[in-house]
Known about the structure:
Layout: H1 3-23, E1 26-33, E2 38-45, H2 53-68, E3 74-77
Parallel strand pairs: 2-3
Antiparallel strand pairs: 1-2
Helix pairs in contact: 1-2
Amino acid sequence: MENQEIITRVEKALNDIRPYLETDGGNVRVLGVDENMVVKLELLGACGSCPMSVMTMKAGIEETIKRQVPEVTDVQAVNITSPDDPRAKLPDNMA
């Protein structure tokens, strides 16, 4: 399958969640899809530095992409807040 076709489908999936990202001052840009079907993203605006970005990536962005484009094996953000960052909000420290 052509990478451009996959990127188009990923963009379509992202359009479903972009309104939620934009509400919080963020967005996401597709950088590409490699030969292993790994989608590379850049988190934009507030999403790039948000302590919730790990949760947003896993529970929102990655899940949406994989549901609509099942060929995708992984979704990675090049600038996500590290899970090691003490400010990062993860499922186990949401209290």
